[in-house]
Amino acid sequence: MSFKDIFKNSFLNGFSSGVDVKTIIISLAVTTVLALYIFFIYRMVTRKTFYAKTFNLSLIAMAIITAAIILTIQSNIVLSLGMVGALSIIRFRTAIKDPLDLVFLYWSISMGIICGAGLSVIAVILSLIISVVVIVMQKYPTKKLSMILVVNSSDINSDTRILANVKKYSKYFKVKSRNLTPTSLDMVIEIRTDEDSKLVHDVLRIEGVTAASVLTHDGEITSS
Q1: Rounded to an integer, what is the distance from CA 64 to the centroid of its chain?
Q2: Binning pLDDT at 50, 70 and 90, where does residue 175 land?
Q3: Contact (CB, 8 A) for 169 and 198
């Protein structure tokens, strides 16, 4: 046997360590418990109008699958290199629109990696810290969100009176759109007020105004 063969065998043997069944069961069990914990935390803090249960379920599967991959990689370095090559062909093309979803996705993958590496204590502590931070910051009071006032008028010269009424009820307002035709005026105004109902009623009393409505949104807050 040549020196090259001896070195190759010693190298492979040094990185080959069988993972016993007990370790596998414990790692996957802890991963599953933490993945379920992530599931309920996501369900509690999500602010979406349409809750994506399929995405939430995918977080559980992602954590368990990742843990299984890490456990497999630990057993043999040659197998781990093969898995790296196989996994490199996977491409995810689904866009993550909500940054909070991205946080939960990385959290789920991290739990799988950490538990698969046998560091369950770190995974538990990390999960507790992240959940406390996310929940507390969700409850943290933020600046009042702006609303959108939409006004339709048959008098093209009524914009001055509309803005005068808006000014009475809103310290901050900004005209986002003013659409004029020979016979009508359409205005979209960003406002910040606690008396939106009174504002709409007053705007409707303006001569020529045919419709007025206030819309709320969950977008970014415009700084005043």
Answers
A1: 21
A2: confident
A3: yes
